């Protein structure tokens, strides 16, 4: 399943459009307003410090807007002993937030690539997931952004990315269907063009997971 993502999405900065970023006090005031709108008293003991806590939490949740994914992948290494087989990192923990309701998306990311002269430290694969996950997201776009960045930075023979995730906008509100997970994939280069390569990648990450059709 390959994803075509339309529309405009932010680049390395959430405020690249030139709009002024609210300051910390303004952000905290907005949280206070939401508490009042929900029907509670922001001045009661248990909530007095909540606006400031939420602002600090948002700094963590959306730290990806302050990082450049291509710069993160800039440091690569020459292959050891001419290694040219598939590199796969699976079960990378995913914590993101839905851009439609700002509630958590929780799941796992699996990444594979076929080197073409250079490899990248495996921690950088996990970091690239973090950069894009710590932004407001839809899963389809997140999958494409991870794969496309790896392709651009490493220029490998191929890249494959599969994400399996549960969306709390579906499990805790709306249709309320817990236990449902969404699976998306992005295959580039040999992962798209060579059925054997794609099958090898999917078999390496499969286990007991529900994966896209290998054909």
Summarize, please.
This protein is an alpha+beta fold and 215 residues long. The protein has helices spanning 24-38, 50-61, 69-72, 122-133, 139-154, 168-171, 190-193, 195-206; strands at 77-78, 87-98, 104-114, 118-119, 136-137, 158-167, 182-189. It has 2 domains: 24-61, no CATH class; 72-206, GTP cyclohydrolase I, C-terminal domain/NADPH-dependent 7-cyano-7-deazaguanine reductase, N-terminal domain (GTP Cyclohydrolase I, domain 2).
Could you explain the architecture of this structure?
By secondary structure, the chain is of the alpha+beta class. The chain has two domains: 24-61, no CATH class; 72-206, GTP Cyclohydrolase I, domain 2. Helix content is 37%, strand content 22%. A hairpin with a 5-residue loop joins strand 2 (87-98) and strand 3. 28% of the residues are buried. Residues 1-8 have low confidence and may be disordered.
Structural descriptors:
five-stranded mixed β-sheet, alpha+beta, disordered N terminus, elongated, GTP Cyclohydrolase I, domain 2, 215 residues, two-stranded antiparallel ribbon, 7 strands
Topology:
Layout: H1 24-38, H2 50-61, H3 69-72, E1 77-78, E2 87-98, E3 104-114, E4 118-119, H4 122-133, E5 136-137, H5 139-154, E6 158-167, H6 168-171, E7 182-189, H7 190-193, H8 195-206
Parallel strand pairs: 2-5
Antiparallel strand pairs: 1-4, 2-3, 3-6, 6-7
Helix pairs in contact: 1-2, 4-5
């Amino acid at each position: 399943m390959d994803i075509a993502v339309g529309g405009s999405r932010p680049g390395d900065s959430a405020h690249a459009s030139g709009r002024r970023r609210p300051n910390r006090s303004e952000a905290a005031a907005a949280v206070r307003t939401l508490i009042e709108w929900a029907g509670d008293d922001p001045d009661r003991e248990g909530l007095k410090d909540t606006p400031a806590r939420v602002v600090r939490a948002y700094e963590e949740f959306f730290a990806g807007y302050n990082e450049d994914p291509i710069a993160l992948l800039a440091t690569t290494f020459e292959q050891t002993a001419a290694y040219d087989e598939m590199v796969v990192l699976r079960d990378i923990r995913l914590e993101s937030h839905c851009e439609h309701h700002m509630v958590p998306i929780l799941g796992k990311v699996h990444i594979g690539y076929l080197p073409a002269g250079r490899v990248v430290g495996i921690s950088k694969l996990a970091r690239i997931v973090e950069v894009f996950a710590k932004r407001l997201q839809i899963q389809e776009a997140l999958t494409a952004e991870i794969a496309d960045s790896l392709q651009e930075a490493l220029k490998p023979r191929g890249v494959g990315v599969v994400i399996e995730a549960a969306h709390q906008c579906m499990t805790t509100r709306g249709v309320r269907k817990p236990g449902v997970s969404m699976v998306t994939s992005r295959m580039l280069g040999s992962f798209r063009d060579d059925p054997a390569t794609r099958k090898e990648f999917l078999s390496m990450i499969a286990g007991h997971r529900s994966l896209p059709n290998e054909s």
